[in-house]
Amino acid sequence: MGRTSNGWRNGFIGMLIFSGSLPATRIAVLELEPLFLTGARGALAGLLALCALVLMRQQRPTRRQWHSLALVALGVVLGFPLLTALALQQMTSAHAMVFMGMLPLSTAVFGVLRGGERPQASFWCFSLLGSALVMAFALSQGLGAAWRGDLLMLLAIAVCGLGYAEGARLSRELGGWQVICWALVLSLPAMLLLAGLRWPANLGNVGAAAWLGLAYVSVFSMLIGFVFWYRGLAQGGIAAVGQLQLLQPFFGLALAAGLLHEAVSPGMVGVTLAVIGCVAGARHFAPAR
């Protein structure tokens, strides 16, 4: 029971850190091109990860583990950052939060496909209900965006769910922080090349806010958040702890309200409480670990 509780605690910390990712990305892409932003955040995080692995003298993964790490890198180092950066050029961070309500389902599905988990039917009911509440609330706000942005966010959710589930499965063998660090190191050459090829010609005109956004997504979203998140998923279960992502849109909207001056309606508070109930229900019916 202690391992499960630690999993939910670590997962919650990771979710809180990830809640700032879309607002920070939105701020950054207002002045930085998406491909450069993706390469730069991956390169900065990759260099930090390489230093950590060398200092801690970690053993290199096996050939089979490298294959899994490639899926992690595809999902959370390249796929999700690039797709969300492109989408956020066409929509607000508040609209993008609509799709984050679908991430727990994506993670749970890949947890079944890749992690071999078998949650109870009651778990799926609470998961679907929570996702529906998030989607209904966000759509009721009358947010609009181009269909291309919506499609990009749907693709981002799919690849992110794969990266989350695969990384959590591998964390049981390598450890949470080791998984994200090795995935970042695996991606480092490509991220350095991408950042170099898309290097802005007018870096001097980029404001402090954009640099702070880049710093956040590089250090916290790409590295520190995953240390807690993968550890939580491995300890508490991919599908179960993944339900904490139902709360991410609301924490993200709160941050967007403070950073981007977007309004937070009273309905947000009520739906948040209902979603917390769904998370509690999913936790109750999740398989014990």
Automatic annotation (TrEMBL):
Its main location: membrane. Residues 12-130, 148-279 form the EamA domain. It is found in: Membrane. Pfam families: EamA. It comes from the Bacteria. GO terms for cellular component: membrane. The chain crosses the membrane at residues 12-29, 35-56, 68-88, 94-114, 121-139, 145-165, 177-197, 209-230, 237-261, 267-286. It is a multi-pass membrane protein. Keywords: Membrane, Transmembrane, Transmembrane helix. Belongs to the EamA transporter family. This is DMT family transporter. It comes from Comamonas antarctica.
